[in-house]
Specification:
heterodimer; A: 317 residues; alpha/beta; 10-stranded mixed sheet; 10 strands; B: 671 residues; Creatine Kinase, Chain A, domain 2; Helicase, Ruva Protein, domain 3; 2 domains; two-stranded antiparallel ribbon; 19 strands; 37% helix; glutathione biosynthesis (chain B); ligase (chain B); GCS (chain B)
Chain lengths: 317, 671
């Protein structure tokens, strides 16, 4: 089994990938575009250059570059692309930044795996930013999706009941178990604040009693923030939970998408072996495990200096 | 326009003799500031808005509205009241709005004696909750201002008083026109702030120019407008001052509304935003990047369709102010051969800006203004003092002008710890962007002022446009956006913005792709198994400049083009907001603001200019002849007062505002 560590590097240098079309819809376009563009750029860096030209107008020869050239192995993981952590980092000292990290757990992972994933993900972010700690860590559980229009109590309960059956909504026990790892980061002062994503008031009410350190933030989708139900607003206010906005989708990295990104197809990076036998890519089933998004904003200037993603996927023989 | 200390101002012939003095001392003061502050670092984003009001007085019995000249009285009452406040006795009914814990707003005099300016008591930050305080603070300012006026007076935020300079008694108290200072046949000297600086400014501009200023605005040709239109308010038989000959020499043009005094322009209200930059580098970058947005925001905020009681065929104030303070001589204007003056000057002191100043590899020499006039000696002095070419060029360009108001007391010795001589030139160059060096206090950093926007009727709209510009600056810095186009195109856009309904009917030069080029990874260590690669920018682009920009509608610039075209300023701002932590309530308020601007750009909502023009033409007293009568003006200003209070919710003015309140939440975060 190989763990693939996918990364985008700093999107704020990356131009087009960060600006989607009008972005009121929840979307993973930013992540997917950023990964694809970072893979391509990394391959191009190793492509045989024609006439020394590097203005992008020369024919693309990057598809000939074997993945081993632009990826790197480290402790049993394959970094796609290779990451030189000495080249990254923030320009000023810790106190100048607000650093927010959002960790997306993906389906089919257990609570104990998620505890391990949390540590791996945060370690990578801290290495990338050259920082000892972050300000806010938000976790997103798969299948937990708050839709303002749906927050009718019966529906919510129905979803809770059926959740374990069709494997969509994560059950409360597993979430509480995972939360321990988040609390641990808080206790170690690696994350000053911790929070959840897409919790409605019902879910919050069930969740809070099971926590030692309560979430101070609940992040909900912004599509139409003006219809946030009063129950949630009042409950959040009462429990001193700040409601923040986001426009990420919860199932941010489906395995089909990873296969497409890394496969041998037209838009693939050629890391995974294709159906044709002679390919030198990795063989096996790919299963994404987590995605982490990090954002560093210069505190009193409101300027985003660094934003990016890491994602981890397992390739099982 | 801050007040200078009282002193003895020089009349123009004397001032002219001292102009070189003031310029040289100004340059020395600038060098001192620059040397002291060029390394200033890490200043926070602080920003401020300026709201300017016209004070109008309603006469309900006669169904008439006039401009009130009680600025000084109102300011005195405000000043006395803040003393009261310190003693704990502030006006009690203001306590309700005061719980925001804000500092008391600051009120300032302005050029017109019928104007007030109000700024927040302390600058805003970028904390998103600060953004939520802007609109309530603006409303609070208006409440305080109103509270210190007579009961029939009201502070309105229209760019101009529609019947300024008509033949009737449009001011309260009334004064005769044709005074010694302005020599205007329409306006009395008393129209200007009585502080000696202001009448001197007006008189010396006229004197330097050699005749009165000349403002001709094309009249709106309605069904029954007499053609050719000869401004019926012009008096050709006046013989009090030599300048009364101007109209006999053809100053008033056919088919135009004619005006002849500085107060017709400088009596306009604007919405200006000033930002503090992190350091001089960021300040220079913001100055350049905001510059191409100037004409776009001017057209989008259009609010000035009436002058001197006539509907105009233009929608914005800009050029009228430019002409109202145009002190260029016939030689400088190119109307006479250069004999006494040093150069021909293509633009008024009040005009779109002509320089880019950022040391940015993306700034191509093709973008610079080929007609830029620079004082080479002063530029050399700045460069000898260590300033770089670009910045020295900028200031040596501003310093081609003469100082207009010089106080005898200030000419005794050069004080390098002061900035008065520098500010004398800097503050009378009214370009659409202003790059402001730090004053001599420790706290303030390098600042950039964005000056083109027209004031809007409601505080909701004024907050929306102010906040949009703040968010655009954050997007520019975060995404490293590039809006560079050649300066002459911005100059052309500024003219385009004047056209009636330019917001929907005109196209503007704009950069196709504001996003940075994709970075390239450089294979730094080929042959090793873990190559170190680094990211670097591609070299400065070298393709044809003409391919970088195209003509776009305001809708395309604000909301984006479909497909692969310009992404749109609002989508760029949305992308920024999606990347930072914003609470639900703030995001919802910001959505109201962005929605207003988006719909103004697309035409779903009307500009103020369109609404005013429509209101006049629908009024029962309007005769289809472009004349905005006293009665129409009364109805209009009553409606404006109502809109200020109710923001369109009563139906009046809803064409401008409808969505602003329709999307307001009910029983939710934003309630």
């Amino acid at each position: 089994m190989t763990n693939l560590i996918l990364s985008t590097s700093n999107l704020m240098n990356g131009g087009p990938s960060i600006i989607g079309r009008p972005t009121s819809e929840k979307s993973n376009v930013e992540l997917i575009n950023a990964l694809r563009s970072n893979f391509l750029l990394s391959k191009q860096a190793f492509a045989p250059s024609l006439n020394g030209s590097s203005d992008g107008s020369s024919p693309d020869t990057s598809s000939d570059v074997p993945y081993s050239r632009w990826t790197a192995r480290e402790n049993g993981s394959l970094f796609v692309p290779s990451v030189d952590f000495s080249q990254s980092g923030l320009a000023e000292e810790r106190s100048q930044y607000d650093i927010t990290v959002k960790l997306f757990f993906l389906p089919h992972t257990s609570a104990s795996e998620r505890c391990k994933h949390t540590k791996e993900a945060i370690d990578l972010v801290l290495r990338e930013l050259h920082m000892p700690s972050i300000d806010l860590l938000i976790v997103s559980f798969p299948g937990v999706s708050f839709d303002a229009d749906d927050e009718e109590e019966e529906e919510e309960e129905e979803e809770e009941l059926n959740g374990s059956q069709h494997g969509e909504g994560d059950d409360m026990k597993a979430m509480a178990e995972t939360w321990k790892a988040i609390e641990w980061l808080h206790e170690k002062r690696i994350a000053s604040q911790i929070g959840v994503s897409e919790f409605g008031s019902e879910r919050l009410q069930k969740f809070l009693p099971q926590t030692k350190v309560r979430p101070s933030v609940d992040q909900i989708n912004v599509r139409d923030c003006c219809v946030v139900p009063k129950a949630l607003i009042l409950y959040a206010k009462q429990e001193k939970i700040e409601l923040l906005t986001h426009n990420d989708c919860t199932n941010i990295l489906p395995s089909g998408t990873v296969r497409e990104l890394l496969g041998t197809g037209e838009k693939g990076a050629g890391v995974l072996a294709g159906p044709e036998e002679e390919s030198d890519g990795l063989k096996g089933e790919v299963e994404p495990q987590w995605v982490v998004k990090y954002t560093a904003v210069v505190r009193d200037r409101g300027v985003i200096e660094n934003k990016g993603y890491f994602a981890m996927a397992e390739v099982r023989d | 326009m801050g007040l200078l200390a009282l002193g003895t101002p020089l009349d123009w012939p004397e001032a002219k003799k001292k102009a070189d003095y003031v310029r040289q001392w100004g340059i020395e003061q600038l060098l001192a500031i620059w040397k002291r502050a060029k390394g200033k670092e890490r200043d926070a984003l602080r920003w401020g808005d300026e709201i300017e009001y016209l004070v109008v007085a309603f006469d309900e019995d006669r169904q008439k509205v006039k401009l009130s000249l009680r600025q000084a009285d109102i300011l005195r009452d405000l000043a006395e009241d803040s003393v009261l406040k310190e003693q704990g006795g502030y006006v009690p009914d203001l306590q309700a709005v005061q719980h925001h814990g804000d500092s008391i707003p600051v009120f300032h005099p302005e050029f017109g004696r019928f104007m007030l300016e109000a700024t927040p008591g302390k600058p805003w930050g970028i904390g998103f909750k600060d953004l939520l305080d802007v609109e309530p603070n603006m409303k609070w300012r208006r409440v305080i201002a109103k509270d210190h006026m007579n009961s029939n007076e009201y502070p309105i935020t229209l760019t101009t008083f529609p019947r300024l300079g008509t033949r009737d008694d449009f001011i309260e108290p009334y004064f005769q026109p044709s005074g010694e200072r302005l020599r205007s046949q329409f306006l009395p000297d008393e129209i200007a702030n009585p502080h000696i600086r202001f009448p001197t400014l007006a008189a010396n501009i006229r004197s330097r120019r050699g005749r009165k200023v000349e403002i001709n605005v094309p009249v709106f040709k309605d069904d029954k407008t007499p053609l050719p239109f000869k401004d019926p308010t012009v008096n050709y038989d006046l013989h009090k001052w030599p300048e009364d000959d101007d109209v006999r020499n053809g100053a008033a043009k056919d088919d135009h509304i004619y005006m002849d005094a500085m107060a017709f322009g400088m009596g306009s209200c604007c919405l200006q935003i000033t930002f503090q930059a992190k350091n001089i580098i960021e300040g220079r970058k913001l100055y350049d990047q905001l510059s191409p947005l100037g004409p776009i925001m001017l057209a989008l905020t259009a609010a000035t369709p009436i002058y001197k009681g006539f509907l105009a065929d233009t929608d914005v104030r800009w050029n009228q102010i430019g002409r109202a303070v145009d002190d260029r001589t016939r030689e400088e204007l190119g109307e006479a051969p250069l004999k006494h003056d040093r150069w021909r000057i293509p633009k008024s002191r009040y005009a779109s800006n002509s320089t880019y100043i950022s040391q940015d590899p993306r700034l191509r020499k093709e973008y610079m203004d080929p007609d830029l006039v620079v004082d080479q000696d002063l530029k050399q002095r700045l460069m000898n003092g260590g300033m770089d070419d670009l910045l020295a060029t900028h200031f040596a360009h501003l310093f081609i002008r003469d100082p207009i108001v010089i106080f005898a007391e200030d000419l005794k010795e050069l004080d390098l710890n002061k900035t008065d001589h520098f500010e004398n030139l800097q503050s009378t160059n009214w370009q659409h962007m202003r790059f402001k060096p730090p004053p001599h206090d420790k706290d303030t950093g390098w600042r950039v002022e964005f000056r083109p926007m027209e004031i809007q009727i409601t505080d909701f709209e004024n907050a929306a446009f102010s906040i949009l510009i703040v968010l655009i600056t954050r997007a520019i810095l975060s995404f490293d956006l590039n809006f560079y186009i050649p300066i002459p195109l911005t100059t052309a856009n500024m003219e385009t913005a004047h056209a009636r309904n330019a917001v929907l009917e005109q196209k503007f030069h704009f950069r196709n792709d504001p996003l940075p080029p994709r970075p390239m990874k450089v294979n730094g260590a080929s042959g090793t198994s873990t190559p170190a690669h680094q990211t670097s920018r591609p070299p400065t682009p070298t393709g044809p400049v003409e391919d970088e920009h195209s003509l776009m509608t305001i809708d395309e610039i604000i909301n984006g083009r479909s497909g692969k075209g310009f992404p749109g300023l609002i989508p760029l701002v949305e992308s920024y907001l999606n990347s930072v932590n914003v609470d639900v309530e703030t995001r919802c308020e910001l959505a109201r603001y962005l929605d207003l601007i988006s719909k103004r750009a697309s035409g779903q909502l009307w500009t103020t200019a369109k609404w005013i023009r429509h209101f006049v033409r629908e009024n029962e007293d309007y005769k289809g002849d472009s004349v905005v009568s006293e009665h129409v003006n009364y109805d209009l200003l009553k409606a404006v007062e109502e809109i200020t209070e109710n923001e369109g919710k009563t139906g009046v003015g809803e064409e401008m505002l409808r969505s602003g309140w329709a999307t307001r939440p009910q029983g939710s975060a934003c309630g």
